[in-house]
Design brief:
The structure is a single chain. The chain is built from 20 helices and twelve strands. The chain has a five-stranded mixed β-sheet with strand order 1-2-8-5-3, covered by helices on one side. Strand 6 and strand 7 (about 340-345) form a beta hairpin. The chain is of the alpha+beta class and about 475 residues long. The termini are far apart.
C-alpha cells in the first residue's frame, strides 16, 4: 500500500516517541509535512494518516459512510477502561442509536439545571484551600470536576457509595500521569496481572472496585425508581431506543465509566490550563474581571456563560493545548484523493486537532495566547474543533465548556490567585489528554474574600 508523506524513522521508534512526547512528535512531523503525513503510532493500527488541513478534515468528517467510515476498532486500547458497549467503541447503527439516547441530558433545560450546582461545588473546593500556601491548580480542578461528575452524572452527593467511589476514581485517573505507565494501555504484552503493585494489576483492582459500586447503584435505582431525578444515570435508565428497548446494566456501566473517566480528567485539565493562561498574562485577567463585573450584582449563571470575552478565553485555552489531540479514526472505503494524495481502501485516517490548532495560516503567532482571535473572527467547525467533529464529536461538547466557564468565573470573581513558578507550563501526555506538566503551581493571595473588590464580592454572593 502506497502511503503519503512517510518517514524513514523506524516504526517502533515512532511509537515510543508518540507515547512519551506526542507534542514533539506531531510538531516535528508537521515541520516537514504541514497538511498530512503517515504516522506509525500505537492504538490505531500499524499505520495512520494524520490530517491537519481544514478542507481535508471537512471531507473526512462529512463523508462518514461514503468515502470515509467511522471506525471504532482502533479505539480498542480504551476498552479495558470503558468496555465494549460505550458510545466510543460502538459502530454503525448501534453508535447512532446510542448517541440519540445520550445527547438530551447534555443540552437544553438539563444544562440550566446544572448551572447553579457547578459554581457551588467550585466555591466549596476553593474555600478549603489554606491562604498563602502553594497548591497545584490541576489537583484542585480535578476535585471540582470529580464532584461535578459524581453529582451531575451519577446524582451522588453524599452517603457511603459516594465516598467509596471517589478514591478509586482519583487513583485510576492518576495512574496515567506518567506516559511510561500509560504504555500498558497501548501494548497488550504489558497487560499482565502480577499483583496490585504492578500497573496492570492495580488498574484491574481499581476497575473492579468501581464496577461493583456502579452495578450496586444501578440495581438500587431499578428497585426504587424516582422519576424526579435529573442526573444523567437516571435519565439514561428511563430512556428507550427506537425499538422501545432500555439500556442493559452492562451498557449503563460502560457509559458511566466513559463519562466518569473521560469527562472528569478532560474538563479538569481544561480549567487548570485556563487558570494558568489567565494568570500568566495579567492583561487577560484584567479584561476578564472587568467583563465579569459588567454583569452587575445579581447576574444569572446563563448570562455568565454567554459573556464574549470569557468565551474567547475558554476557546483560546482549548485551541492552544486542546485536551483531545486527535479525532476518532476513520477508514477509507474506496479509492479516493485527499489533498492530491491517493488513499487506498483500508487506510486509517485521523484528524490531528493539535496541529490544526497550531496552523500559522489560521492562527498567526500560534504559540501566543490571544483570546481576541475569537472576537475578531468566526472559525469554521473544521478550523476550530476541540471536541472533534462529525458523528464522533464528543457528547460532552456542551457540558465541558459550560462547566469550564462557570468554574473560572466563580474562581476569578471570588479569589485572587498568583502563579508561583515563573517557568512556562509545558503540555505533557496524561492518558489521552495534554495536561500541564507541573500542575500549575499557585497560591491564594491574602485571606479568602478579603482582598477582592467589593464589586467582585457582590457578584459572587448574589450569584452563587
Amino acid at each position: 500500500m502506497q502511503l503519503p508523506n512517510t518517514f524513514k524513522t523506524p516504526s517502533f521508534v515512532q511509537k515510543l516517541h508518540w507515547i512519551a512526547d506526542p507534542v514533539n512528535y506531531m510538531e516535528k512531523a508537521a515541520q516537514k509535512y504541514p497538511d498530512l503525513f503517515t504516522a506509525f503510532v500505537v492504538g490505531f493500527g500499524d499505520t495512520t494518516v494524520f490530517v491537519q488541513h481544514p478542507q481535508a478534515l471537512q471531507e473526512i468528517l462529512t463523508n462518514d459512510r461514503k468515502r470515509f467510515a467511522a471506525l471504532s476498532e482502533p479505539n480498542r486500547f480504551l476498552r479495558p477502561s470503558i468496555g465494549d458497549n460505550s458510545v466510543i467503541t460502538l459502530e454503525g447503527d448501534r453508535h447512532k442509536q446510542r448517541r440519540q439516547i445520550l445527547m438530551p441530558p447534555f443540552h437544553g433545560e438539563r444544562m440550566q439545571a446544572y448551572s447553579h450546582l457547578i459554581p457551588k461545588l467550585t466555591e466549596q473546593i476553593f474555600s478549603q484551600l489554606p491562604q498563602n500556601s502553594p497548591f497545584l491548580a490541576h489537583t484542585v480542578t480535578q476535585k471540582i470536576s470529580l464532584e461535578v461528575i459524581l453529582q451531575v452524572v451519577l446524582g451522588l452527593s453524599e452517603g457511603k457509595r459516594y465516598q467509596q467511589l471517589k478514591q478509586p476514581l482519583i487513583e485510576i485517573t492518576n495512574m496515567f500521569q506518567s506516559s511510561i505507565v500509560s504504555a500498558f494501555m497501548y501494548f497488550p504484552f504489558l497487560q499482565k496481572d502480577l499483583g496490585f503493585l504492578t500497573p496492570w494489576g492495580k488498574f484491574l483492582r481499581l476497575r473492579q472496585q468501581i464496577d461493583e459500586l456502579l452495578y450496586a447503584e444501578i440495581a438500587e435505582r431499578r428497585e426504587k425508581p424516582n422519576a424526579e431525578r435529573i442526573d444523567i444515570l437516571s435519565l439514561l435508565m428511563s430512556a428507550k431506543d427506537e425499538e422501545g428497548q432500555s439500556m442493559t446494566d452492562q451498557e449503563l456501566r460502560d457509559e458511566m465509566m466513559t463519562l466518569l473517566l473521560a469527562g472528569h480528567e478532560t474538563t479538569a485539565t481544561a480549567i487548570a490550563w485556563g487558570l494558568y493562561w489567565i494568570h500568566h498574562q495579567p492583561e487577560v485577567r484584567e479584561k476578564l474581571i472587568k467583563e465579569l463585573n459588567s454583569l452587575g450584582n445579581s447576574p444569572e449563571p446563563m448570562s455568565i456563560v454567554r459573556l464574549p470575552y470569557l468565551t474567547a478565553v475558554c476557546n483560546e485555552t482549548l485551541r492552544i493545548y486542546p485536551i483531545g489531540m486527535i479525532t476518532f479514526p476513520r477508514i477509507v472505503q474506496e479509492h479516493t484523493e485527499l489533498l492530491g494524495h491517493q488513499l487506498e481502501p483500508g487506510t486509517v485516517v485521523i484528524g490531528c486537532i493539535y496541529l490544526l490548532h497550531q496552523r500559522e495560516d489560521l492562527y498567526p503567532n500560534h504559540k501566543q495566547f490571544k483570546p481576541e482571535r475569537f472576537l475578531e473572527r468566526q472559525f469554521s467547525p473544521y478550523e476550530f474543533m476541540p471536541f472533534g467533529g462529525g458523528v464522533r464529536r464528543c457528547v460532552g461538547d456542551a457540558l465541558a465548556p459550560f462547566e469550564m466557564k462557570l468554574a473560572l468565573a466563580t474562581i476569578m470573581s471570588r479569589y485572587q490567585l498568583e502563579l508561583i513558578d515563573n517557568r512556562p507550563e509545558q503540555p505533557q501526555r496524561r492518558g489521552t489528554t495534554l495536561a500541564p506538566k507541573n500542575g500549575v503551581k499557585m497560591r491564594l493571595c491574602g485571606d479568602v474574600g478579603k482582598k477582592v473588590s467589593d464589586s467582585q464580592k457582590n457578584f459572587t454572593a448574589s450569584t452563587f
